[in-house]
User: What shape does this take?
Amino acid sequence: MPKETNTPNADLINALAEFENVKANKINPAFKAKYVSLDALLEATKPVLHKNNLALIQTLVSEDGKIGVHTKFLHASGDQFDFGKLMV
Assistant: This one.
């Protein structure tokens, strides 16, 4: 159960302060590069976000022949923190 809601900004600041670096747990055999798997990343972040009344929302976007992801945090109050798009 999430704690009582603070202001959206306070909850975001608390969540960001609580996050720890997630260590690489997989190896890409083609490049011999280490990376963090999605399940490990979600396992580390979802409880912190929930505790601080936040949800991570990422939607796929397509424009000008490129694809990417649009990232937002949604607060329990309905406020949103929009972090924009990353296109590849």
Summary: The chain has a mean pLDDT of 94.
